[in-house]
Amino acid sequence: TLGSCAGGAERDEHDTLRARALAAHLQSVLGDVQVEARLYDDAGLRRAVEAGQLGIVVTTPPDYLGYVHRIGLGPPLLAVEMRIGGHSLPVIGGVVLALASREDLGTSADIEGRRVAIASLNSLGAYQAQAHEMLQHGLQPPRAEQLVVTGLPQSRGLEALRAGRVDVLFATSGMLERWEVQGLVAPGELR
Q1: Which of 17-21, 93-97, 168-172, 183-187 shows the lowest per-residue confidence on average (mean pLDDT)?
Q2: Could you write out the three-class secondary structure of 124-140?
């Protein structure tokens, strides 16, 4: 069984197709071995991995390292290429999003003291990449009291941003484009 994390209650066709395509490819390579794809939310994937229910795990680098430390998960077998709109994303990264109307939020330095929506502290693209970049530029990442952990799907952070519960949203690279394609965000609504 192949387990992959998907966007929680907002799983879309893309998540399902990606997991099925990977399972079909692995099954064709492995021959007689049956490969079934299962999608989980973040907590569900963690439980399935820790219970030993999965033969193959599709996860992020920080979660993989956590599994290695906690349960001795074996070495990675392959890397999955992320594609958005037919273009390959060579690295996992993150973006800082604000409502286009927020002219007071133009640079990373403007984040200081602001409320920030993140998926989780363990999210490479929706927290760690941005915090790292801030440190690299001599800026202090948001303090714990500034963070609003919205979980998955990342669109929960989008809802918090629109409702004014946060000032900015840390999201995985490609998420804005995905939301635009899905019609969740109008072009020009965020920057």
Answers
A1: 17-21
A2: HHHHHHHHHHHHHCCCC
Pairing of strands 94-97, 168-172: antiparallel
Query: pLDDT of 125-173, one tens digit each?
Result: 899 999 999 999 999 999 999 999 998 889 999 999 999 999 999 999 8
> Residue 167's closest CA among 95, 123, 102, 120?
102
> Minimal CA–CA distance to 124: which of 49, 176, 63, 175?
63
Q: Where are the alpha helices (DSSP H) in 38-188?
A: 42-50, 61-71, 129-136, 155-163, 175-182
Instruction: Give the span between the Cα atoms of 125 and 59, in whole angstroms.
Output: 12
Q: Copy the structure tokens of residue 2.
A: 């192949």
Distance CA 171, CA 118 (A): 7
In single-letter form, the type of residue at position 132 comes to H
- Look up the pTM and report it: 0.75
Q: How many CB atoms lie within 10 A of CB 13?
A: 8
Rounded to whole angstroms, the Cα distance separating 69 from 42 reads 18
User: Could you give the angle at which helices 42-50 and 61-71 cross, rounded to 10 degrees?
Assistant: 30
